[in-house]
Design goal:
The chain has helices spanning about 5-15, 15-35, 45, 65, 70-105, 115-155, 160. By secondary structure, it is an all-alpha fold. The N and C termini lie far apart (about 65 Å).
């Protein structure tokens, strides 16, 4: 056995497949940065000889990487979608807060166990939903601000970005 392959087998036994994949990705990235073209094995060449399935989608290239400038309409659409989602969640948050207020102001339900445990869990559930929605709204507002800033950095004026 060649020493090169023996080393590979030894490394393979010591590392998990994911670690090897990470190292290979780093190696390929380094080669791309240096402008060195690595030899790639094309699976289609082997498909005629056996059953090979090509299932991985082509890599997505962001507009910044491809050198293309994102369109104004793309930013407008993103901002419009974020605005409508923020509005919808704000309305839902107001509704949940009102329901919580009504639930807390409701008279005690008398029965065998005093206040119903289902009322307590309903109140707790509403409070958790409100907290989750507040976190989601904060994230959406941050995303909107980042999108707006990205559009400004791309050279679009504030008046152009209005939806």
């Amino acid at each position: 056995m060649r020493p090169k392959y023996a080393l590979f087998l030894m490394l393979l036994s010591l590392q998990s497949l994911s670690e090897l994949a990470k190292k290979e990705a780093e190696r390929r990235k380094l080669l791309d940065q240096q402008g060195i073209e690595a030899k790639k094995i094309d699976q289609r060449d082997h498909a005629a000889k056996g059953n090979v399935t090509l299932s991985s989608p082509p890599p997505k290239v962001s507009p910044a990487e491809s050198g293309k400038k994102p369109s104004l309409e793309r930013y407008r659409t993103l901002l419009r979608n974020l605005d409508s989602e923020i509005r919808r969640d704000e309305e839902r948050l107001a509704s949940l807060r009102k329901r919580l207020e009504i639930e807390k102001d409701a008279p005690l339900r008398l029965g065998r166990h005093g206040k119903s445990s289902t009322a307590e869990t309903a109140t707790r559930r509403l409070e958790n939903q409100i907290l989750d929605l507040e976190i989601k709204l904060k994230r959406l507002r941050d995303d909107r601000l980042k999108t707006y800033d990205a559009a400004r950095k791309a050279g679009f004026l504030p008046g152009e970005l209005k939806t």
